[in-house]
Write a structure and sequence with these properties.
- The structure is a single chain.
- The protein is elongated.
- The chain contains one helix and twelve strands.
- It folds into two domains: 29 residues; 166 residues, Porin, CATH 2.40.160.20.
- A hairpin with a 4-residue loop joins strand 6 and strand 7.
- The protein is mostly beta strands.
Length: 197
Amino acid sequence: MTKTRSIALAASAFAFAVLFAESAPAELPRRIAASAAASYYIFDGDFFGLGNAVGAKAALRYELASDIYFENSLGFFDTEGSGVDVGGFDYRFGLAAVFPVLIPYRPVARCGVGFLTVNPVTVTPTESFRPAQTTFYLCAGVGATRSLFERFLLEAEASFWITPYRYRIYRFNRIDVTTSEERFMHVGLSLGAVYTF
């Protein structure tokens, strides 16, 4: 009797394990998404004398929990400073939340940290050169997605970049140098497509 009960208990445990294993893929998948977007930056007026920028970026995100993603993005942009073209890179990583409301539109919120790297023209009393300037930011963004096809989405976003501390800026005019401490705040706008795996 005891042996029969043990066999029945083992069979029940095995059946439960099989059912759980079969149902796990439907309950536990982690979605991955890749995106590409056109971007436009409205830079702070004191940001190394640079104008607003146009660029492109790509991002990859991985679902950590239901509709909560870890996301990182890398972009390139082009602007103008001191009458010459200036290129730059932006990198951002953090969390993105997609809210399953207002279907087929879904609000998106982001927070994280980022870096902007540019090489503005600097003029000293003896020469001109273009040192790389990399600044660190806290980032936040809001936007929305719109389903186009089963796996394709259209996404628009407005992001806000602010430095958590002041940067010392050196300005040369071939005669002397002046310094100031600035805290930068930029606005980024983007429109792109998202593919979900």
